[in-house]
Amino acid sequence: MAAHRQTRINEELMHALSEAVRQLKDPRIMSSVVTITDVDCAKDLKTANVYYSFFSPKYTEKDIKTALKSAQGYLRTYLAKNINLRETPLLNFVYDNSIERGNRISELLREVMPESRMYTLNNIVQKACEIGTTHMHHNAEEYYFFTGADITNFFDFDAEIEISLGETPETMETYTITEPTAVRIPEGYWHGPVKFKRVGAPVQFMPLYPSGNYGKIIQEMKENGEVVYTYKGTDLPK
Questions:
Q1: 3-state SS class at 108
Q2: Which of 6, 61, 126, 155 has the fewest CB atoms within 10 Å, measured from its CB?
């Protein structure tokens, strides 16, 4: 029973802190994607390790940790108002680099195991943009995963995304994504670019290519109007 109660407390703290962090007005937090990934509260409730991950094109790990530490008073007040505990713990912020490690592990696997059949990336999209070009893979299928960026609640999704697919570049049809989605792209199918038309909340976009080296064929037009097909891949000589 004690272990179950401790788990429940940790979960309540994690969810409450996730909501509280989203309300912070610190520019270091507002311009970044900060996710509370776990909480480990001491049994006496005096302290709690708060694990977080983040994505920011501007701020460093030190910047984000400083911002969270400076918000300690607000965060503890929020916890006291929203969680029924006899004591509100002091918060110790610990950087969780699991996503970063995941990307690095993929890179290392490709270095030490050239036969590894996996190529993937984690992208956090925060504003409307366009990713990639129209292309196809002639020898392998590909998967696109779209979820909310908060890893504690992937289904917290607020975006409108367009992706086009077809047997030829001229016959591609456009599909609109408005909820967490996994897309399977058959080998030989043309697709892209991915158009993030509206991003109300950060989106995690993860392409997965299960065929070792990442190679694609793109269609290009020369100045004389001639259409040519070019192969671009990570297996080409440097």
A1: helix
A2: 155
Please indicate, yes or no, if residue 186 is contained in any of the structural domains.
yes
Written as six digits, the tokens of 201 are 């909340």
Q: Does one domain contain both 228 and 121?
A: yes
Domain region containing 166: 117-233
Do 138 and 188 fall within a single domain? yes
- Angle at which helices 61-70 and 72-82 pack, to 10 degrees? 60
Q: Could you give phi then psi for residue 96, rounded to 5 degrees?
A: -110, 105
Q: Report which of 155, 134, 123, 106 is spatially closest to residue 227, judged by C-alpha positions.
A: 134
Q: In this structure, are residues 17 and 24 in contact, taking their beta carbons and an 8 Å threshold?
A: no
Task: Output the pLDDT for position 1.
Answer: 42
Q: Phi and psi (nearest 5°) for 236?
A: -75, 150
Do the beta carbons of residue 18 and residue 35 sit within 8 Å?
Answer: yes
Stated pTM of the model: 0.56
Are residues 86 and 147 both part of a single domain? Answer: no
What averages of pLDDT result for each successive group of 10 residues across the chain (238 residues)? 75 88 89 82 90 81 94 94 90 78 54 60 79 80 88 85 92 94 90 90 84 71 78 56
Total domain count for the chain? 2
